[in-house]
Amino acid sequence: MARSEGSASERKRFLAFAHIKDGRSFSEAARMVRVQPRTVIVWVKNFRKRGLEGLRQQRGSGAKRLICEEAEKMVCKAIDEMQKNRPGGRVRGRDIWEMVNKNYGISLSNGSLYRLLHRAGLSWITGRSQHPKADFEGREILKKL
């Protein structure tokens, strides 16, 4: 089973268990796979709790989100409103950052802010902005000529 496993750390765990199954002690098995004996004891404990799944590499949970899902939805609505109410130009990342900081008291990094926008399906790449005094009817008439 250790040979077919893709992850090196999981292969190590399976190999340590093979040594234990052959009658070696925890410390001998640990020495053979070059880890601390305490590590092997933790692996055995996980195996007893969850079986083979306890030996598999667990995915890290990562850092907690700074902004909850409800607030994230409210931020997205506020961004849409901000863009609609803007007379000309674009809503910049800096504008969104200031709004989130002022309204929610959360100081996001650029990466966190753009990940939030990506999750919301909002793109930071925008079309060309329209001047507030642009003559749309005149432009359409010129297009038809």
From TrEMBL:
Identify one Pfam family in the record. Answer: HTH_23
Q: Which domain of life is it from?
A: Bacteria
Q: Where does the Winged helix-turn helix domain start and stop, copy by copy?
A: 88-137
By its UniProt entry, which InterPro entries does this protein fall under?
A: Homeodomain-like_sf, Winged_HTH_dom
Name by which UniProt lists this protein: Winged helix-turn helix domain-containing protein
The record lists the organism as Parachlamydia acanthamoebae
What phylogenetic lineage does the species belong to? Bacteria, Pseudomonadati, Chlamydiota, Chlamydiia, Parachlamydiales
